[in-house]
# Entry
Amino acid sequence: MSIDKETVRKVAKLARIAEPEQRLEPLANELSGILGWIEQLNEVDVEGVEAMASAVDVKLPMREDALQDGPTGGGQADNVVANAPKTEDNFFVVPKVVE
Amino acid sequence: MTNPADLTLAKLRDALKAKEITSLEATDAYLGRIEKAKALNAYVTVTADKARDMAKASDAKLAKGEGGPLEGVPLGIKDLFCTEDVLTTAGSHILDGFKPRYESTVTSQLWRDGGVMLGKLNMDEFAMGSSNETSFYGNVVNPWRRSDGGNTDLTPGGSSGGSSASVSARLCAAATATDTGGSIRQPASLTNTVGVKPTYGRVSRWGVVAFASSLDQAGPIAQDVRDAAIMLKSMAGHDPKDSTSVDRPVPDYEAVLGQSLKGLKIGVPKEYRVDGMPEEIEKLWADGIAWMKDAGCEIVDISLPMTKYALPVYYIVAPAEASSNLARYDGVKYGLRAKEYTDITSMYEETRAEGFGDEVKRRILIGTYVLSAGYYDAYYLRAQKVRKRIFDEFTDAFSKVDLILTPAAPSAAFALGEKMNDPVQMYLNDVFTVTANLAGLPGASVPAGYDRQGLPLGLQLLAKPFDEETMFKGMFALEQAAGANKRPNEWWA
# Structure
């Protein structure tokens, strides 16, 4: 299936990537090329086949519902925000989102 | 003093234990080689001070007759592994300045066992690429050149191109790498190194920057099979912090090397051929079959008719997972934030437009598209079903054989720039490797010969889930029979 410029615009919006107007047409061509190649999957009979999401056949392990030690534990807000471009008092600072 | 560049990891380990060389000497020798090999662009960051501190600590232990299995051995780390307080880029502009506050499980186990970190290795951006040309930090150049006397720069493969180039050029004793569709095995094949992708779940993914979580698996790129066995033993093991990590004991892979292969059944799948594959690769594959026969194996012709659908499945599943995983790069939590924006949405959009390269954007868009309303069933769900058929086909094959032998890559190293304009042509590099990721199987590439231009070619072995031991036995036999242990001319030094 080929995808058009408007679809690329919509998908780029969903993916939160600013694509300049002049890139939409070339991207539509590139993505159509890749999706066209993927179309060959339609030849495969998948009637009654179960969808596979993971190669490991184990149940997700449960852990005790308690605060962990170490880097996955609590009490380290300063570590959490250490790499943020903008912070204040251990909060992430972003442009205003409510009027 | 022994030149550490002439020693494998195993020999260096033994020389360190026997006090024939100190870790500081070995570390300084490697740092000197890295300094002279800038033309290869294999390292994004060299951690010279940290390396010397770690080496001195190792020397103190070695002097007392103590130390772990990797004590004092200088290693390179793919820049996808989080390393505490050391810049971790994933080859991307969007992680500018990111210094993790924690250490990945794999690297923490290497340091637990005495390894010394030389630095962080270049790679395709977020591991998306097969030629190491999508890195924000520039192309990595293959230490190998064609014997035609031309000076064409060739690809070291990808995405672990910094790992393959640095091991091949002896800029570290061994390296970590990761493999989502072939990113350990294809670069190893192109650089005369050994690359091992373990069973999915064998090695913890905790602290490894995520690309496609159901396919990603870390493993070593090493100088030879023994070195790869030593590295994997330290890297592997159960980790409660990764819910897909499997709780099984880690065998001593080095102990099986040299064991008899008598009676093992080796499957040869007729579908592992592509149009335009050089005849040297056909011949090498035939050689490999003969070597396994000589080792006492029984050769079994098998058929894996779903093979041709593996790459199209991969290019739905991997971008879908990537589009979700890479949603976290939004200019808020770490790395880059665009300078100019009007509101929070435009901050996200401008940051991601500036921070991601073309290939990463392409894959995020594909992933977003195949997961979007109206297309999910036609693409994503169908791909997951075909993935199950590929998995079933391997399960069936492995009820008849112990190992599967195939070529590792459809060609030798190609020129940088040669395939960048055609994404599908680039994707075809992984045609022989991607099936193992979809089925979660262990796979390895072993140097097996050279093409008419003198460029290295690898053979691949695939094994049953968690049967890396049989795979290592087979790898060792291939290595012994092939004797393909040449090193590249050091034109860069």
